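User: Predict the complex.
Assistant: Input components as received:
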Amino acid sequence: MELLEVKHLNKSFGKKQILKDVSFSLTGGKIIGLLGKNGAGKSTLIKLINDLLTPTSGEILVNGKKVGIESKKVISYLPERTYLNKQMKVSEVIEYFKDFYDDFDEKKAKRLLKDLDLDIEERLTKMSKGMQEKVQLVLVMSREADLYILDEPLGGVDPATRDYILDTILSNFKENASVVISTHLISDIERILDEVIFIDKGKIILQSGTDELREKENASIDDIFRRMFKC
Amino acid sequence: MEFTFDNNIPIYIQLLEYMKIYLISGVFKCGEKLPSVREFAVTFKVNPNTMQKALAELESMKLIYTERTNGKFVTKDEKVIEKLKDEYAITLAKSYFQGMKRIGLGKADSIKYLEGIKE
């Protein structure tokens, strides 16, 4: 069974069509890059998979079932903007996650926070944007999910932390779990990707294994992307 | 050991290259148990599936073998590693002579240059 199946998905906001007949599927055990320019429809697609928006038409299946309460239990989602109450201390946010998700590993979260020199007694308001992003990512990666969906996880963090985050992703996802990473910082992450999905103007224009694509085009994923989407 | 990857070349091919050098230079010795795919992946900072692909290729070349439930090991046959070393050295030598040929120097001259280099 496919981990995720997206079938003929359309999404419009009023007259504006954001996603046009999007179909693809993902199996477990892979790291997939969802790559596209700003406004290509990446975040809309991700919100639909997380059942935060309703499709105009088409369907999304996770482990063979339509998205809903069950799929939320197995998807760990890092949104592009934080939804946490910033008045909370990190330790309170940990409690909150523990309450919400059966698969949350508190020990792991505390260990990762310590590695990143983050103080769990600090309030989120007192932290920089980059630090808040790290906290959020740690929480998301500390769940034992089937599918991790990370919307722009590298945007606000410095290059050293970026490496640490990539390490964290590599060493923390379960054997059969998959990770979808949406980003436009391709050169930083292309080494860890199994597959890429290129999305442009609401359509999937390419889905391929990364090494196959490099071999075929004799170029890096970053170069191929730039060539394809030249303005 | 230091390593860097060129994003223009398939990663598994580059991993294969590094692994061959590790085997030739004895970082992993004949009959020695290798780290797990996951450990390798974290060290190289690459995807575990890509690492798996490179290791499968080494296995098909008989440079390493899998003991069921026990993990992967370097071949016990020293001759296989010797042969790999020999082939690798020939490739390096050939590319040196090719480079020298490009700037108009024959084999004899090229060797003189080699001998002139202080280690």
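Chain A has a mean pLDDT of 91.
Let me know if you want any component modeled separately.
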